[in-house]
Specification:
- By secondary structure, the protein is of the alpha/beta class.
- The protein folds into two domains: 18-185, Rossmann fold (3-Layer(aba) Sandwich), CATH 3.40.50; 192-312, no CATH class.
- Helix content is 39%, strand content 16%.
- Helix 2 (52-59) links the parallel strand 2 and strand 3 (67-70).
Length: 313
């Protein structure tokens, strides 16, 4: 009798977590990757998407370390294969969290001007993909910076749709490192709510899923004793809690979020960003952001961001 061949040993489980860092060139991917490295992730920059599965297979034999991979427009020819691959890997049980860094065009132009580095799509050779647009090129084969940025947005649009978006337009590197650290520490098994205050005078955050305008509420800025304080300070809190319309606005926003939160959970979303804006991002929006985050913290992981206040720290 011939003995049956021994069963092949079971392959170890994939890494606990894979964070995919992507986004628009100049939006801060290097800063985010360094933050993840400091948080204990093993980081790989600009891994071609077609090598992702082989890389994760190699990681099987290691000690289930957390992995972060940066993928950007330099792999433009391979990007159409990335989305189906992410779906396949998730179906096989690999936890992939995609973080997409974005910024306003003016901010990106300023950063490229300051660094004096060319945009990856500024030359024809960089766009060797089915999405190549020769009409943007000058006779020497160069593309204007604004055109390169807009083309990159088109190429990455589908990847942005499946990712958690972080708007870095107004963020200093230290802020971005802090926000990335908070995101990866929040966990990935349930929907995480991100409540963000901002100033309309500096623009609406690009990463917001919902935007609520609270500029109609009484403004503590016009009270001399409260002007230098913020929505986290007790005198401002007492003032706003004494205004009936503030409580009414808070209740209506809370009701709206609570009504639609189950639909976002069923859609398997990882993050939902609720942006609250006032004129200066110092009093009203900060107060509502803090209170809404506390009210929802019993139901979901809730993160707090204060775009304007954080920039001062």
């Amino acid at each position: 009798m011939t003995a049956a061949p021994a069963a092949a040993p079971e392959e170890p489980n994939p890494p606990n977590e894979v964070v995919l860092v992507t986004g628009i060139s100049g939006s801060g991917k290097s800063v985010a990757l360094h933050a993840l490295e400091d948080a204990g992730f093993f980081c790989v920059d600009n891994l071609p998407p077609e090598l992702l599965r082989d890389f994760l297979r190699l990681e099987h034999g290691r000690s289930r370390r957390r992995v972060a991979i940066a993928v950007d427009i330099r792999s433009a020819g391979s990007l159409p294969h990335l989305l189906p691959l992410i779906d396949e890997l998730r179906g096989e049980g690999v936890v992939i969290r995609s973080v997409f860094l974005d910024a306003g065009t003016d901010a990106l132009v300023r950063r490229f001007s300051e660094s004096r580095r060319p945009h990856p799509l500024s030359q024809q050779v960089a766009t060797a993909s089915p999405h190549r647009r020769k009409e943007d090129l000058d006779p020497q084969g160069h593309r204007a910076l604004y055109d390169a940025i807009e083309l990159e947005r088109e190429l990455l649009a589908e990847l942005r749709e499946i990712s958690t978006v972080v708007d870095t337009s107004q963020l200093r590197p230290a802020q971005l490192r802090l926000w990335i650290r908070d995101l990866v520490q929040a966990g990935s098994l349930a929907l995480t709510l991100v409540f963000e205050s901002f100033a309309f005078k500096h623009g609406v955050p690009l990463d917001a899923d919902f935007v609520f305008d609270v500029r109609i509420l009484p403004n503590p800025y016009y009270i001399r004793e409260l002007r230098a304080l913020t929505g986290r300070d007790e005198p401002v809190i007492q003032y706003l809690e004494g205004q009936p319309e503030v409580g009414e606005m808070m209740q209506q926003i809370e009701t709206f979020i609570a009504r639609w939160l189950p639909a976002f959970e069923n859609d398997q979303r990882s993050y939902l960003t609720v942006a609250i804006g006032c004129t200066g991002g110092q009093h009203r929006s900060v107060y509502l952001t803090e209170h809404l985050a506390r009210r929802f913290s019993q139901r979901s992981v809730s993160l707090i961001r204060h775009r304007e206040l954080d920039a001062r720290d």
